[in-house]
Amino acid sequence: MVKRPTLENFRKKALQNAEVREEYEALSSIFEIKRQMIAMRKKAGLTQEQMAERLGTKKSNISRLESVNSDISPRLNTIEDYARALGHTIKIEFEADPAR
């Protein structure tokens, strides 16, 4: 039986490449924010269409906002509005880069 590679194994192997690791680390906070946004919306039981209604926008804007493939970075006030519509606030923390 051939063992299929897992996403985790692929990620580990890819991160051994310094260029890939640098880009991954640069994008990790954006991915985490979007992951949390999607989780909050789903926990509230809302579809992207319903979320768009709450924010007075189109579903395509919510889809783009939540997409990890989007080249557009959301503005801070957009993230605040999104969180507020779900009964949340945001907290931003700065951490020292251990590599520096």
Give the ordered list of helices and strands. Answer: HHHHH
In angstroms, what separates the terminal alpha carbons?
A: 45 Å
What does the overall shape look like?
Answer: globular
- Taking all Cα atoms into account, the compactness measure Rg is 17 Å
Amount of helix? 55-70%
**Which stretches are poorly predicted, pLDDT < 50 over at least 5 residues?**
none
Tell me the strand percentage band.
under 5%
Largest sheet: none
The average pLDDT value, as a whole number, equals: 89
Structural class: mainly alpha
Continuous helix count: 5
Report the strand count.
0
Structure description:
- This protein is mainly α.
- The chain is built from five helices and no strands.
- The protein is globular, with a radius of gyration of 17 Å.
Quickly describe the structure.
By secondary structure, this protein is an all-alpha fold. It is built from five helices and no strands.
